[in-house]
Design goal:
6 helices, CMP_dCMP_dom, Cytidine Deaminase, domain 2, catalytic activity, alpha/beta, Cytidine_deaminase-like, single chain, five-stranded mixed β-sheet
């Protein structure tokens, strides 16, 4: 029986697959309040010609529009791929309480070098603000993104 994290990550995987089918990077995110999905997002960088339209920022924008506020305290963001520094900053600014990730960047191949979400959280003294859960459907998330797992 799948865990709640797995069930929610599968919804994010649907967004990732749709983004990839549209010619964007295959990354998907959802924002959950309790057990309800309040917003979805997928990478739209190429189709929108917007370098900030990563799955996480799209989900945050959609949540703001749906909820008519920008304080997402107590909510969880699921994402199929490790958020970049820009997205991690937006997640922290929004008050998201938990980040659940699938696949991670391969430090050997990434343009971000040794960056991890955890390193940014530590550097900004925000460890008490955001709980990070990793390893949820890692293989499936890596496969949809077509990257090597680390």
């Amino acid at each position: 029986m799948p865990t709640d994290h797995e069930r929610m990550m599968r919804i994010a995987l649907e967004e990732a697959a749709q983004g990839g089918a549209e010619g964007n990077a295959a990354v998907g995110s959802i924002i959950v309040d309790g057990d309800q999905v309040v917003a979805r997002g997928r990478n739209l960088v190429t189709s929108n010609s917007d370098p900030t339209a990563h799955a996480e920022t799209v989900a945050l924008r959609n949540a703001g529009a749906a909820l008519q506020h920008t304080d997402f305290s107590g909510m969880t963001l699921y994402t199929t791929f490790e958020p970049c520094p820009m997205c991690c900053g937006a997640i922290l600014a929004s008050g998201i309480a938990m980040l659940v990730m699938g696949a991670r960047h391969d430090a050997a191949q990434s343009s971000w070098g040794g960056y991890t979400v955890e390193s940014l959280i530590e550097m900004t003294n925000r460890a008490d603000q955001l709980t990070v859960v990793t390893g949820i459907l890692t293989r499936e998330c890596a496969e949809v993104r077509n990257v090597e797992m680390r």
